[in-house]
Amino acid sequence: MPHETDADRSGRPETVPEFLAAAREGTMAAPAVIGDRFLTHADLWAEAGAIVERLAGAGVGPGDVVGVALPRGADAVVAIVAVAATGAAIAPIDPGPSGSLIARAIGRLSALIVDDRPPEVVDAPTAIAMTDVRGAAPNEWPALATVRPEDAAYRIQTSGSSGEPKSVIGTQRGLAHRLSWRRDEIESSTAESGAWLLLSAPTFIDGITTVLGAVGSGRPLAVATDDELADLDRLVELVRRARPSSATTVPSMLTAIVAERPDLVGSIGEWVCSGEKLPPALARSVADAGGSTLVDSYGCTECAGDDVRGVVSGDGAGVGGSVPGMTARLLDEYLHPVPDGCVGDLYTAGPQMARGYHAAPGATAVRFVADPSDPDGGLMYRTGDRARRVDHGRIEIVGRADRQIKIRGIRVDPATAEWALESVPGVNEAAVVAAIDDGRGRLDGYLVVDADAEAAVDGETLDDRIRRLVPAHLVPSTLTRIDEVPRTHSGKTDYRSLPAPAVQERSEEPPATETEQAVARAYADLLGVDRVFRDDGFFHLGGDSISSIALGSRLSRQGFVTSPRTVFDHPTVRALAAELDRMTADAPASAEPVDDGSAMSAAGLDDAALAALLGRFDGELG
After folding, report:
1. Overall number of domains in the chain
2. Is 577 within 8 Å of 558 (Cβ atoms)?
3. Most-buried pick from 55, 176, 365, 465 (CB within 10 A)?
4. Would you say residue 253 lies in a domain?
């Protein structure tokens, strides 16, 4: 039963359920999800309908917040679509141990969707297990409550300058507007007629908009699992099967793909880069690969993810103009416009703007301010970025007006990293400094710890514990122990008095086994280190989650069996080599590092059958 909603004057839907309504009436036999499970649109809507029925039965609807604590995969897609269809707010939560920090920022949940059982760290009155809805048969949807444009559509955690992270309350109008102009854009394009590739995590706004945008536009969605992101060879296999025409990712991830699997770049017609400043060298590499259009996108969770974007030309110049319906303003400290070519503070305004931050009126008042150019007294969002207008109106980002920094596309305030570190047992106090290394954001951490906190518990050191409990983008590249945090006369942290980051003491014991030697060579090649010793750690040498993807891909091509968590749980050469030997020995004899198509077998589709099915609907999707 459709929701009772009104379209805006442009004819675009003003709520997400209305945006999705047309897709429910589309070609049900067409592919919807290609990944760890294959789903047609009929399958997708049947499973989503089963969730909707359970949510409606529990009285969950507009005004409620529903958590989605699922890993990357088809289940997450189904759950996100189901929550959006009810008009409730989507609250994505990392299903791992670090999810507790995100859940605290999001606040009370009315329901939670999980794989089979709720995580202990997240509480909700109603829990729905995906194991109970997989393979559900189509059924009549229950009557659903009216959704208003001003109702919440998502509640997503973001960084906060006060330390503890906040959650953004995005509106139905804002998210529907963002999804609608993108659908209009692709429907008017003759180039983009295939599947979309989901590389962004569904816990962030880019992942949410990719899922809902593909489903609402009737496009197949190729979903890369954590295992496929950790092994670029397996990602290539997914791309070969799904033939996506568009993918969105952060520049650092695309840089890793260009370096490790350049053949993958030209096989996708459109690459959208967001979350980080686009390096000109990357733009040139994509141009050299041929066959792809590169789009640079700038946005934030507070404005539904995309505010400014543009096609990147051969000179590598990034970003561009405002997206449809949004306005970007460059203002001075008195909120007066700055002349073209001059640097000002970047503000955005328009229908995509969020309501503010959950339970944080002070932070909302600081960021969502009166728009002096709006005679109706509207608001605009102060992004915290500094920018200038060049080249006939193109907006170029030049830096930040605060301590925040982008870490692999995620906006991070060092104060939030400090708060996260101090939540780890054994850490009494923390200080974190942001830095830029070769154009990439980095955090350096300083810890005051308990005397007995360094002792390993069940083989887990304090550093291991931090990497397990703290979200990856908040884990500093270096962790230096200090006796106390230096203070100014007013009692604030004196960041200028912190010492230089500690250099890890190196035993200089050479790699002993053949596997250790292979791991050491991979570390050296990827991280630009002359010599790698047996007890050197990948992250202490400068590695991060993006470079760990390239590492997994290289090790896989050498015949080792690995997983996304392997290098995080076993970061030293000695430990990783031992784990690789164990995993490779335990793997079935038939296991190969390249996907054998088993992900499709559950649907009874081999490569030829899937290709035929995709080809059958290419005309309808175009």
Report:
1. 4
2. no
3. 176
4. no
Those residues whose C-beta lies under 8 Å from the C-beta of residue 608, and which sit 6 or more positions away, are none
Residue 274 domain flag: no
- What whole-number distance in Å separates Cα of residue 179 and Cα of residue 304? 9
Q: Which two tokens stand for residue 204?
A: 């962030």
Contact 591, 584 (CB under 8 A): no
Query: What is the extent of the structural domain holding 123?
Result: 16-183+216-226
What are the φ/ψ torsions at residue 467 (nearest 5 degrees)? -65, -25
**Spatial CB neighbours of 184, under 8 Å, sequence gap ≥ 6:** 12, 324
Q: Would you say 383 and 401 are in contact if contact means Cβ atoms under 8 Å apart?
A: no
Contact 521, 529 (CB under 8 A): no
Which of the four pLDDT bands, split at 50, 70 and 90, describes residue 442? confident
- Say if residues 355 and 171 touch (Cβ distance below 8 Å): yes
Asked if 388 and 344 count as a contact pair (C-beta separation under 8 A), the reply is yes
Q: Tokens 């990147």 label which residue?
A: 312
pTM: 0.83
Treating both helix axes as pointing N-terminal to C-terminal, what angle do 205-216 and 16-24 enclose, rounded to 10 degrees? 40
* Band of pLDDT at residue 617, cut at 50, 70 and 90: very low
> Within 13 Å and on the Cβ side, how many CA atoms surround 621?
27
Q: Taking each helix axis from N to C terminus, what angle separates 74-86 and 205-216, rounded to the nearest 10 degrees?
A: 80
Plot region of 579 (φ>0 → left; ψ -120 to 50 → alpha; else → beta): alpha
Do residues 553 and 261 make contact, with C-beta atoms less than 8 angstroms apart? yes
For residue 65, what are the CA distances in angstroms to 17, 362, 369, 475? 15, 22, 26, 28
My answer on whether 85 and 137 are in the same domain is yes
d(CA 299, CA 394): 15
CB distance 43 to 32 below 8 Å: yes
- Residue 502's φ and ψ, nearest 5 degrees, are -65, 140
* Residue whose structure tokens are 């991979």: 522
CATH number at residue 141: 3.40.50.12780
The verdict on 418 and 347 lying in the same domain is no
**pLDDT on residue 459:** 64
Amino acid identity, position 279: P
For 510, left (φ over 0), alpha (ψ -120 to 50), or beta?
A: beta
Tokens matching residue 281: 């060298």
Residues 34, 94 share a domain: yes
